[in-house]
């Protein structure tokens, strides 16, 4: 007979396997290089599938410590992809509610930001995922910047989870501190997300009907993400055995973590299906804006060249 933990892993596999294909459909429907958050849903489903499979393997082969370790590590990184998806979807809404064509200064500022980030490892990773997309307002750029600490917190939690499985007591202590640091970053990002979603909700009348569906999904997911983060905070900041990440109550984990994650993915996936497919309008706008900036930059040079030619002609006359 399966243990409660193994039964939970089996249930996750049964749910996330079909969800993975649906999220992949949404990703390719809206474009894999768009910074709209859909790609992180597929990444999250894949993480949960691998983690559940390793958890089942660890339950059936207790001597295989590696599977148990990686199952625990993957189980601790669920918050980051969901926050990244939320930030991406909110940025999509913000771009529609704010100025469509930014000023030249905004384009230059974005270019400097992208140039700085592109030299980092995170910049290269996120560049592959299309996170370099143009931001059309200060709020949109702030959402874009928030993705970096979310990614950093993800790495911190992975390292911390790896240290927690170490046999050394000092390494376990370090791992717990790292996970706590990552959770604090997640909490700060969540608070920012809460405020920005509230701001977008106040601009509901200026949003297209399709983006209102995305906003509705974000509003539905916001309390779910809050409960999920609360569970992790209780697991690592409290001494209540019920919330222990290793020997805690499986039913509590299912109700305060697993269920919230599943409902969040479903809400975002439904929004991705219901929202009309985006065309090339946004990409076209970005290309136009970039071309416009390049033309503006080249104008002084051309003007200077014409002026020099005119002076030379006058001198020869």
TrEMBL record:
The keyword Transmembrane helix applies. Keywords: Membrane, Transmembrane, Transmembrane helix. Residues 7-101, 116-275 form the DUF7702 domain. The keyword Membrane applies. It comes from the Eukaryota. InterPro entries: DUF7702 (IPR056119). Residues 299-309 have a biased composition (Basic residues). The chain crosses the membrane at residues 13-31, 38-58, 70-90, 142-161, 181-202, 214-238, 250-275. Signal peptide: none annotated. Residues 291-317 are annotated as: Disordered. PANTHER family: INTEGRAL MEMBRANE PROTEIN, UNPLACED GENOMIC SCAFFOLD UM_SCAF_CONTIG_1.265, WHOLE GENOME SHOTGUN SEQUENCE. This is DUF7702 domain-containing protein. It comes from Alectoria fallacina.
């Amino acid at each position: 007979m399966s243990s409660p933990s193994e039964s939970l892993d089996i249930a996750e596999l049964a749910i996330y396997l079909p969800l993975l294909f649906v999220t992949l459909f949404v990703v390719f429907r809206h474009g894999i290089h768009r910074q709209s958050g859909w790609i992180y849903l597929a990444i999250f489903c894949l993480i949960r599938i691998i983690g559940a499979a390793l958890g089942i393997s660890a339950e059936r082969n207790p001597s295989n410590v590696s599977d148990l370790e990686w199952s625990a590590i993957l189980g601790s990184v669920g918050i980051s992809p969901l926050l990244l998806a939320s930030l991406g979807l909110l940025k999509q809404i913000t771009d529609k509610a704010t100025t469509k064509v930014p000023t030249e200064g905004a384009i230059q500022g974005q270019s400097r930001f992208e140039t700085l980030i592109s030299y980092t490892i995170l910049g290269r990773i996120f560049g592959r995922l299309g996170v370099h997309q143009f931001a059309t307002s200060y709020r949109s750029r702030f959402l874009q910047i928030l993705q970096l600490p979310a990614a950093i917190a993800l790495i911190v939690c992975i390292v911390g989870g790896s240290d927690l499985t170490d046999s050394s007591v000092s390494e376990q202590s370090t791992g717990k501190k790292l996970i706590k640091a990552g959770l604090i970053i997640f909490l700060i990002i969540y608070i920012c997300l809460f405020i920005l979603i509230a701001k977008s909700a106040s601009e509901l009348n200026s949003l297209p009907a399709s983006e209102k569906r995305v906003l509705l999904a974000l509003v539905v997911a916001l309390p779910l993400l809050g409960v999920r983060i609360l569970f992790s905070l209780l697991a690592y900041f409290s001494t209540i055995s019920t919330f222990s990440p290793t020997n805690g109550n499986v039913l509590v984990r299912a109700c305060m973590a697993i269920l919230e994650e599943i409902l969040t993915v479903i809400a975002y996936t439904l929004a991705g299906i219901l929202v009309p497919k985006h065309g090339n309008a946004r990409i076209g706008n970005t290309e136009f804006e970039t071309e416009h900036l390049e033309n503006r930059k080249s104008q002084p040079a051309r003007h200077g060249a014409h002026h020099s030619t005119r002076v030379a002609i006058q001198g020869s006359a």
